[in-house]
Structure formats: structure tokens, C-alpha cells
Design a protein that fits this description.
alpha+beta, two-stranded antiparallel sheet, 28% strand, 72 residues, 4 strands, elongated, Alpha-Beta Plaits
């Protein structure tokens, strides 16, 4: 039996200011800027393909607003 551990990225939409740093460091290119706005008027980042996340933590490490968490 093979058990696959899938990482989960959670982005706090209200903390995100859409700087795009997480997009640039994601090796799987699964983070995108949403078309929607948060309450501060920023387009926030979101994950397009959650199951493709490898849990590398690059997005969480680079985020200047501590808006990204990665769960394994």
C-alpha cells in the first residue's frame, strides 16, 4: 500500500497584497494572481492546482506579509 502525502497551501487573502513573489519561486507554477480583490483592493494570490504542490515551502518563506502557510 502506497500512501501519498499531499501538501496543502493556504493563502490568507486579506493579508496578501498580490506582490507575486510566491508565484516566481514556485517550482510547480501552481500559484496565480486571482481576478478578485480582497477588502484592501489587492488582487490576491491563490493556488490553481493544490494537488500538484510538493510542499517545498518556498512560497511561505518568501512572502513578506506572512500570508502563506504550507501544511504537510
Amino acid at each position: 500500500m502506497v500512501i501519498l502525502m499531499v501538501a496543502k497551501v493556504v493563502i490568507d487573502q486579506e493579508r496578501c497584497k498580490g506582490c507575486g513573489l510566491c508565484i516566481g519561486v514556485c517550482p510547480k507554477k501552481i500559484i496565480i494572481i486571482s481576478e478578485g480583490f480582497n477588502s484592501k483592493g489587492y488582487h490576491f494570490a491563490k493556488v490553481s492546482h493544490q494537488r500538484a504542490c510538493i510542499g517545498c515551502l518556498s512560497c511561505a518563506i518568501i512572502c513578506p506579509d506572512v500570508a502563506v502557510e504550507v501544511y504537510k
